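[Q] Does anyone have a clean structure-token version of this?
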Amino acid sequence: MEEVEEIVIVGAGVSGLATALGLHRKGIRSLVLESSDSLRAAGFAILTWPNAWRALDALGVGDLLRRDHIRLERHVIKSATTGATMSELPLTGQDMEHETRCLKRNLLLQALVKDLPPGCIRYSSKIVSIEKAGNLKLLHLADGSTIKTKVLVGCDGLNSVVANWLGFRQPTFSGRFACRGLIEDPQNPIMKRHIMEYFLGEGFRFGFSPCNDETLCWFFTWSPSNRDMKFT
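[A] Here you go.
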């Protein structure tokens, strides 16, 4: 089976859904292809700064997300060994110039999907190869079908099939490892609305920031030793 689409976006993550919603707001139809069988709402939280909120407002989802995420008031960096404050930056003012919040990824995806038209996202649609045919791109899917498109947008993450087809360089190691997660405790409301970072020295750093009064996002990052690299 072969079909023709004006615009195909590969990947239903944050960037793919934001692109589709932006086009939809302008009255332009697109098709999002997602290899998973449903929206992948896994993940933790994303620290969003003023530019992100300008983009979310332009997409029409800013106010919806503000309802579930508190505005952060300060960014504090401390030494974990001495407790001394190394830096402190206020994030509030009379306007929204420094608006910063920590967004739960699943709520961000749900907000982006909410106003997309039915049929905009097609799940279980894994692209196995891409070829060019004149001004069109031929997308060959794992189920044997083919989609022709005039515009192809790659938002398919680290191991992007679109980037590989375009000949982009393979991802390289950044030189750091990181772990992160969420803690939810409705019985003990979070009091401080601060981004907190602690430096331990020798490349070790950890911190946390609240998403709302019940949810805290934490992270830990370090520069790996040769021993660490053996386990990757």
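[Q] Thanks! Anything notable?
[A] The first strand starts at residue 2 and ends at 10.
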